[in-house]
């Protein structure tokens, strides 16, 4: 894969697809993987990492859903300009959550407490 160089640790509880997703996302957001960089095909990356193609395909689907990559048919999967996309997707998710919390009858403080707990879990070391 050249410029990307991923590693999979089979001794940890984190599933391989999540390890692939997290490494690509982190490197794209840091700028280490520049916007427009073409990622290897699902099959090529799966072979390189010793994973099933479906494992890599799931990571790519989640990266695309998060706005980190874009898939362009024959042009392949490219690193997207994620900054604006990531903020837009986060704002939409936050608005959807706020609406649902309100419909469920939660107070503002209860809704914020739920978000705080979820963020603590998501960002644990």
Task: Describe this protein's structure.
With 125 residues, this protein is mainly α. 58% of the residues lie in helices and 5% in strands. The protein has helices spanning 16-30, 42-49, 53-65, 82-103, 108-122; strands spanning 69-71, 77-79. It has a two-stranded antiparallel ribbon with strand order 1-2.
Compile the SSE list and pairings.
Layout: H1 16-30, H2 42-49, H3 53-65, E1 69-71, E2 77-79, H4 82-103, H5 108-122
Antiparallel strand pairs: 1-2
Helix pairs in contact: 1-3, 2-3
Strand order of the largest sheet: 1-2
CATH topology of the largest domain: Arc Repressor Mutant, subunit A
Number of domains: 2
Low-confidence stretches: none
Topology as H/E string? HHHEEHH
The number of E-state strands comes to 2
Biggest beta sheet attributes: 2 strands, antiparallel
Strand content: under 5%
List keywords for this structure.
125 residues; two-stranded antiparallel sheet; 5% strand; Arc Repressor Mutant, subunit A; mainly alpha
In short:
With 125 residues, the chain is mainly α.
